[in-house]
Write a sequence for this structure.
């Protein structure tokens, strides 16, 4: 083109498009452009639209929109996962094995995304492997314990107990990062704890196994969120979750064999006979698919917000899950359970509001 001097080194059309970043900007690796004529500027503007430039401009103007989309999809996938998951446990009570299935299906999806380049493959640095293994341990054990709780009690009760996650996140943030919040912020955790206590005392499906495993998973998932935030500085949030899931699968296999190995084959045979072989295996695939996708989106949301905010977002998700699970399974709730759940959720909402106010004030002080 007239007025342009362009030097290309082994850049194919495919290679050139790969230099376009998500926001449509051009990274000139291997391409030197001295002068760009008006026609080329127009072509570039068109490329920006086709490569996500329009979406990037919208999210730049409304930065909350991208996070909102992540959270909305996260909620939707999670509701679907929880309903299918509990349906499986009603005729196949093997939570450790089903936990492995969730992660194994995720591995298949990850390899497909990498192979088709839907997700860019990234090799983890050796210095991050220790942290990644710690995150994977928290993810694996927390996930298995959550599923033990799902199998033992009503889905609505497990998720009510898990509204306590901001409490564990606050404690973990202090222990790991030395973060200290204001007294009103800590005080807002009291109604969360009180609401869960009321709900636990009057829950019709209550068992100690269901309660304690849900509580333990809170601590493990809070730790996972805090350490995952550190990993994201050197790798995309999607690949952080992909690698964490792979390591977590290896961690989950030994306890699955220990707890369920002796009766697993017989249990699978009985489940297939009860609902049909095709229905049973499709249910396992679907629950694993929704599990992987909702967690992948959750990790992308975590990349946009702080761990505690992510934990509060988890609480909002549980509102949807509790509501839909009651509708799907017809769970009977006592008046006290309903009141306890409302108090816990309201406390979590207050906590999120106060956390946002503090973050805004800190930002103003930094720019003053």
């Amino acid at each position: 083109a007239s007025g342009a001097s362009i030097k290309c080194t082994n850049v194919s059309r495919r290679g050139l498009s790969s230099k376009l970043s998500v926001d449509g900007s051009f990274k000139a690796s291997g391409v030197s452009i001295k002068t760009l004529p008006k026609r080329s500027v127009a072509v570039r503007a068109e490329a920006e639209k086709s490569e996500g430039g329009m979406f990037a401009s919208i999210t730049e103007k409304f930065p909350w929109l991208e996070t909102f989309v992540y959270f909305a999809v996260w909620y939707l996938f999670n509701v679907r996962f929880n309903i299918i998951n509990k349906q499986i446990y009603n005729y196949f009570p093997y939570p450790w094995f089903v936990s492995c299935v969730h992660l194994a299906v995720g591995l298949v999806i990850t390899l497909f995304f990498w192979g088709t380049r839907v997700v860019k493959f990234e090799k983890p640095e050796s210095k991050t492997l220790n942290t990644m293994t710690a995150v994977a341990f928290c993810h694996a054990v927390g996930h298995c314990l959550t599923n033990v709780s799902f199998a033992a009690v009503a889905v609505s009760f497990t998720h009510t107990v898990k509204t306590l996650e901001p409490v564990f996140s606050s404690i973990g943030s202090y222990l790991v990062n030395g973060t200290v919040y204001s007294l009103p912020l800590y005080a807002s955790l009291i109604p969360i704890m009180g609401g869960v206590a009321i709900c636990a005392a009057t829950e019709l499906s209550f068992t100690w196994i269901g309660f304690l495993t849900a509580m333990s998973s809170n601590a493990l998932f809070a730790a996972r969120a805090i350490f995952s935030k550190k990993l994201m500085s050197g790798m995309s949030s999607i690949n952080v979750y992909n690698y964490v899931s792979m390591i977590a699968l290896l961690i989950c296999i030994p306890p699955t064999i220990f707890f369920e190995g002796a009766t697993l084959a017989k249990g699978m045979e009985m489940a297939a006979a009860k609902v049909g072989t095709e229905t049973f295996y499709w249910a396992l695939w679907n629950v694993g698919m929704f599990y992987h996708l909702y967690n992948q989106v959750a990790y992308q949301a975590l990349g946009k917000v702080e761990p505690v905010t992510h934990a509060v977002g988890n609480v909002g998700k549980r509102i949807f899950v509790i509501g839909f699970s009651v509708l799907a399974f017809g769970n009977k709730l006592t008046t006290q359970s309903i009141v306890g759940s409302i108090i816990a959720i309201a406390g979590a909402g207050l906590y999120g509001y106060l956390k946002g106010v503090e973050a805004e004030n800190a930002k103003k002080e930094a720019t003053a």
Summary: The CA atoms of residues 248 and 282 lie 23 Å apart. The beta strands are 6-8, 31-33. Residues 335-367 form the longest helix (33 residues).
